[in-house]
Amino acid sequence: MGMSWSQAMRRVIVPQSARVATPPLGNSFIGLVKDTSLAAAITVPELFQSAQRIAAVTYEPLVLYTEAAIIYLAFSSALSLLQSRMEARLGGHTSPLEVTR
């Protein structure tokens, strides 16, 4: 086709691979954000563990846990929105029939 290696990568290979790789990578990243509360099991300080520590002092666990849940919801929603926009942008040339199959 007369393209150099870098041109072939930029114009042919990377767009096709990005379209295929975006959904699973996005789902994995969102799952990673949601699973950060599991890090408390290995004593890594993070959002939920911080809420537990503050709740032990203030005796208001419901408010703190609700705030932690809202923060997790905000992160997950933002990442889901970003992923859906990336998928729409990368898959813009596919027909609706191909997407639903």
How would a crystallographer describe the biggest sheet? none
Q: Rg to the nearest angstrom?
A: 20 Å
Quaternary form: single chain
Q: Give the overall form.
A: elongated
CATH class: Mainly Alpha
Gap from first CA to last CA: 32 Å
Secondary-structure element order, N to C: HHHH
Task: Please indicate the count of domains.
Answer: 1
Q: Beta-sheet strand percentage?
A: under 5%
Structural class computed from helices and strand pairing: mainly alpha
Features:
101 residues; mainly alpha; MetI-like fold
Sequence-ordered SSE layout with sheet pairings:
Layout: H1 5-34, H2 47-58, H3 61-90, H4 96-100
Helix pairs in contact: 1-3, 2-3
Brief rundown of the structure:
This protein has helices at residues 5-34, 47-58, 61-90, 96-100. It is mainly alpha-helical.
Describe the structure.
This protein starts with a helix and ends with a helix. It is elongated and about 70 Å long. α1 packs antiparallel against α3 (61-90) and α2 runs antiparallel to α3 (61-90). The longest helix has 30 residues, at 5-34. 76% of the residues lie in helices and 0% in strands. By secondary structure, the protein is mainly alpha-helical. The mean pLDDT is 80. The protein has four helices and no strands. It has a single domain (5-100), classed as Orthogonal Bundle (MetI-like fold), CATH 1.10.3720.
